[in-house]
Structures
1.
Amino acid sequence: MSPHLTDFTPSAVAAGDRVVVFGAGDVAQLTHCALESLGIRVACFVDPLLTGAGTRLRGTEVVATSALAAMDPDSTCLIDAWDHTRYARKSELLARFPRVFLGVRLLREADFDESGAPVAPEERGRRIEHYAAQCAPLLAPTGHLRLRSLDVVVTEACSMRCVDCSNLMQYYAHPRHSDLDELHTSLEQLTAAVDGVDEFRVLGGEPFANPRAGRVIRTLTGFQDSRRVVIYTNGTIVPRGDLMESLVHPRILVKITDYGEHSRRHEELCAELSSRGVTWLSQKPVWTDSGRIGRIERTPQELRRTFSDCCVNDLLTLLNGRLYLCPFSANAMNLGALPAAPQDVIDLRTEWPRNELRARIEALYTRKSPLTACTFCRGRDDTTPTITPAVQVRRPLPLTPVKGRA
Ligand code: SF4
Ligand code: SF4
């Protein structure tokens, strides 16, 4: 971590300074928009995943990280707007630059009302708060352990069977709903050991396939200090009764992935949620080729890069009473497809002394080395090829458990 990392204020920029935004995704584009609305011109975006020269974004050039070497450190002011604040964690990249900032206040205070501002308005606030949550420990290391998000899996079942599901549903031959008593015990233990969870994400499979999921949702909305409970659904099921009632809460957001003809109850679901005042958002998906279990031959260096650049390498997942660092690891291990890796998982079904559990969660959450699962995963970063989403298969894919050496 850079010792000089602070939250950006406009007074940090002097006339003649070169302002550079790290990253080129949603948060970087919002940062660009916020800076320009203050009359601060952005010289360029720097993106580590840039593949070709000449790319422009919002009218501004995008350059590769190698371009940093030629920049004058005294006149260059860097703002890390990479969604996962990876630059901020790469002190070797930042060592030459005394002025490196995060853009939390900048984004929170920006007026994005102008037309042409990036990111859909209903999604903008969430993206900014997601970024802010990741910046928080970098800006004010307090010894607190607050988790950005927790995926809470309520079922292994899905109403669709997508051949490339990155949560590996296509491999479940006999999917089960989660044991809710076990899930509640695990949640209680986990939340007692940390200083809060910003966002709970309820998912499956298809969470509405479990008619008793309302009980979990009520528990999660009962945690007063979490900002959001987001339910991820594929638009095939309109929940009824208690499950639908559990969604009527100001902190609930239902995110519907619109798979076109496959999301056969999409319109009905949207109308029903609207009629009850439930906040929802529907989006078309973009998929990467990340849904297959199989050993990938990589050098140790490539494996480390696969992990460190993975966009879900801190997406803690609670599945069947165990806590994992990412959904691929969770489901591949739950399926019994990987060699045993006790260091990659925390079993919350057994009772832990609070401090020991807290230390284990922190070690998993801040982990820097690849998981066993990474060896068998195609990875999830901007270099992973995109594919056609939601291609259906009739039967579960065959599963060949991988034994021995990881
Ligand atoms: S990607 Fe497809 S199979 Fe996977 S959870 Fe979503 S709808 Fe179900
Ligand atoms: S197994 Fe590794 S590379 Fe795959 S999704 Fe998880 S953290 Fe990312």
2.
Amino acid sequence: MTIDDVPRLRFGYLPTPLDEAPRLAEKLGIRRLLIKRDDLTGLALGGNKVRKIEFLMADALEHKADVILTDGGPQSNHARQTAAAARLFGLECILHLGGPRFDRFEGNLLLDVILGAEIRFIPDATVGMMERAMVKAAEELRQAGRKPYVIPIGGSSPTGALGYVAAIRELAEQLGDDREPQIVHAVGSGGTLAGCLLGTRLYLPGARIIGISVGRASKPFQKIAADLAERAAEIMGKHEQFNAEEVEVFDDYLGQRYAVPTEAGIQGILLAARTEALILDPVYTGKAMSGLVDLAEKGIIDPDRTTVFLHTGGAPGLFAYEEHFTKFARYSELPNL
Ligand SMILES: Cc1ncc(COP(=O)(O)O)c(C=O)c1O
């Protein structure tokens, strides 16, 4: 069985481009840097979740779902992309969002509103609290005769992870003879990392995957990703084993906690924008870029081997963090002549 044999709905703009980034490579002191533009997957401003949701929606429709439930923070890109995908298939979407209180519907939250998702906000909720509320809501819907389909946070189920198995195969085709890249990306809930691990095992065995955690310590992620990769392989009828200790995840760049920007992350955003006109975000890709910068500086990234920065999206969230950028404005007021 190959990844093409797994049920999938195709609504992402794929393949995404793989662009050279020579100015940024020079700043990092590495020979070749490529950007895999998964911020351009289409659907309601794109991002990495579109790939996962292609597999998840196929599963939802197979289960005859009429309402999709998922959860995340108020600025969840995953929630926004799920709400959008539900619309494409005429389904309702209920989002259980938790985190700090907000007083404006901005960034991703604004798009959730525009897409007509039902938002159930739980102030200061942990992931566990959100997931419990969601499971309870699904049970109530079931008792009312509905057919809910629950997608865990970040779409990081074994089925969701398959999106990145397909992504790595796509990347392998684009890379041609360059078979030993090091691939760097942001890690939030672990599904992208898991998919990349399985994808490289199957389609690009010479690649090295480097995850940059944006919210949690490395240790639990190593295990989460290894387990998810094994379970995703099972869906493909394969028995693959992953050693959690060999999964490379760095947690040195997450700062205080998830969704709290770091100074290095803000600098990473400015660097990418001002060298390659790439728009990153403070929650995920900016922190991942700060990791890439530091790992290149320390020589942990091999400067002679091709590096691929997987741009997982997130730009809509940028518009909820304006205050971190105003000091960089080159702005003046001219007299009215
Ligand atoms: C922009 C962006 N990058 C990276 C990630 C991390 O992906 P994953 O949750 O699969 O680890 C997410 C989602 O959480 C995201 O929205």
